[in-house]
Write a structure and sequence with these properties.
With 196 residues, this protein is α/β, with parallel strands linked by helices. Helix content is 30%, strand content 14%. It has a domain of 82 residues. Strand 3 and strand 4 form a beta hairpin.
Length: 196
């Protein structure tokens, strides 16, 4: 009886040691039959990581070539507050802009810093808060609109280091274009900016 008990304990110990050794060898590899489920889980995890707003990516934009870019508008802009979505549904005061006919003019693509339009000393306004991942921004387009509903888009390339302080100049270029090409309409305003 003692021999049988000793033999059972020895075999159990050998089996357990072998199982642990095999588990260590396969650590990190998908288990048989779980490959498909592992890929789905990995895909979901990757999908969730892609849409994480605070994730930062390395800046792959080109370097600035030429003299250092000069900020024309030195107005200091604070970082936007932490993002909080609005409640669902319609704004309690109705639409912010009334419906009106719009004509969108040909986009004007300019090199950052060129400022092809005469500088308009526009009235001050609340600058937009941008929740952009700046290292991924390749081009920026800002659109100003006049009192007739004509829109004046201005597109500018970005470079490594382009960010929030440079947006004042792109916004102002759109306003300058609107003011000059509308014949001096003082009601030009910044309608929107976007990027890709």
């Amino acid at each position: 009886m003692k021999l049988a008990t000793c033999l059972a304990v020895a075999l159990s110990f050998a089996w357990l040691t072998n199982s642990v050794a095999r588990a260590d060898e396969h650590h990190g590899e998908p288990h048989r039959g779980d490959e498909h489920h592992g890929d789905e889980h990995h895909g979901e995890q990757h999908h969730a990581e892609e849409h994480h707003p605070e994730e930062h990516h390395p800046d792959q934009r080109p370097e600035w070539h030429g003299p250092p870019p000069q900020l024309r508008n030195m107005e200091r802009r604070p970082e936007p507050p932490r993002w909080q979505p609005h409640p669902t549904g319609v704004h309690p005061h109705g639409p912010m802009v009334r419906q009106h006919p719009v004509r969108v003019l040909r986009p004007s693509v300019v090199h950052y810093g060129a400022h092809p339009w005469r500088r308009w000393e526009h009235p001050g306004f609340a600058r937009p808060a941008y929740y952009w991942d700046w290292p991924l921004v390749r081009q920026v387009t800002c659109v100003a609109e006049d009192s007739y509903g004509d829109q004046y888009p201005v597109t500018e390339d970005t470079w490594r280091g382009f960010g929030l302080p440079n947006m004042n100049d792109v916004e102002d270029d759109a306003l300058d274009r609107c003011y000059q090409e509308s014949g001096g309409d003082p009601s030009c305003y910044l309608a929107t900016c976007s990027h890709f």
